Amino acid sequence: MNTQAKAPSNPAIHAPALATFTRYVGASVIGLLALTGAAIVDGVMVGKWLGADALAAVNLLIPLWILLFGLVLMLAIGGSVVASRYLGAGHNTAASKVFCGSLTIAGVGGAVLAAVIGALHLPIMTLLAVPESLQTMIKPYLLIVLAGLAPQYIAVVLYYFLRVAGQPQRASRALVIGALVNIILDVVLLGWLHWDIRAAALATLVAQLTQCALLVGTFKRAPMPLRWAPTGLTPRRLAQFCANGVSEFVNEVSAGLILLVIHWLLSRQYGVAGVAGFALIHYALLLNIMLACAIAEVVHVLVSQNRGAGQWRRAKIFFRFGMSLAVATGALLWGLSHWSSAALSHWFFRGGNAAVYAQDFWPVIAPVFLFTGANLVLSAWFTGLQQPGRSAFIALSRSLALPLVFLWILYFWQTAHSFLWALPLAEAATLAMALLLKAQQSSAWRLNTTPK
User: For residues 140 and 224, which has the higher predicted lDDT (pLDDT)?
Assistant: First the structure.
């Protein structure tokens, strides 16, 4: 497919550090928000034009989408980290084999998962705690979006490998165009033509197909060190790739499980209006996660390539850039949540119980913004060094283990909404442990490099 014989100089290891970081982060933020923006766009449009019940219905499926996205993210990030190290060391053929194997598994795996979930959609909706009154509404939405799962999986893998191959801006451009298609179709079908919830699913499907087609075209045309090199991928090699991306999988799957638990608790205490009210908070958290992930993914790409090139000092510089930007971004979102949450809640829901619940939830959840970015960048540092154990520990702590512990403890507290404090407490405790791991690693490096 890609026949270019000579690849350009690799900016990740040769270009000025600050300019390189800025270029990669800009493309990563735009691309990742575009890649996962369909959930936010659909939710906002559905909530605005179809009401709280439809919004609750869409959000009850989010744990499933998080699980499915986590699977391909584990493969794409794990494989791209390995390929990135090969590229940094100049082994382009080996990197191309990793790319080809990852892309093939993504396409086949996405098609198989879509077929299985489509066949088992009724028990899956029951598992997601979807009320019977909403199942009729959700079913067509679910089946339409599943039709785009395989193209979405292919697009995710292409996006991550194009980034490590030195084409982050072209990859992001393809995703942005797909996201714009999603927004335009949502506005036309929901806002102007007043279609039902199936319109949001159709907009998502068309956006996924558009992104996949544009990314395939980018790979064919753009000059890069990767090429199409069909090769068999053994289960052992697949496991190695996935091990490098296991922290991202843990982050995604754990977030889905915690969201499912929160939906269950909210439904018990406040009904469908509580679930709808938390949906607005969840979209803000999703935006925060996407910005933090965009920064973290740049860190692990640049750290892994410079590690492969033996440039440890440069790798540490990129880590510091990532931490500084993540902390600053989190502080900005925290401030915005305090200044605009009340007005946003009432504008979105136009009154009603859902607006009241959303306004009450904001102050409890807002501290999450202060810690998430730093945790994800620390996890990405260990991912870039191919230390999946430490990276997964951070991911598991912040997104599953500690939230479950705090949810269990705080659910029996008598204060209103007290169980929601589990999320900021888990992030804060994880940050303390992650900083300790980083300090231990730095101390070990100093001991190993000190002259005897």
Answer: 140
Q: How far are the Cα atoms of 58, 164, 244 from residue 108, in angstroms, in the given order?
A: 26, 23, 21
Helix (H) or strand (E) holding 166, with range, is none
Helix then strand then coil, % of the chain, to nearest 5: 85, 0, 15
Number of other CB atoms surrounding residue 442 within 10 Å:
11
Is the pLDDT confidence value at 449 over 70? no
How much of the chain, in percent, has pLDDT values that exceed 70? 90
Q: By three-state DSSP, how is residue 5 classified?
A: coil
Q: DSSP label at 421?
A: G
List the chain domain ranges. Answer: 14-441
Structure tokens given for 325: 């930007």
- Give the chain's mean pLDDT: 85
Cα 181 from Cα 286, distance rounded (Å)? 20
- How distant, in Å, are the alpha carbons of 134, 200, 251 from that of 194? 19, 11, 36
Residue 138 is inside which H or E element, if any?
Answer: helix 132-146
Is the confidence at residue 306, as pLDDT, over 50?
yes
CB 57 within 8 A of CB 232: no
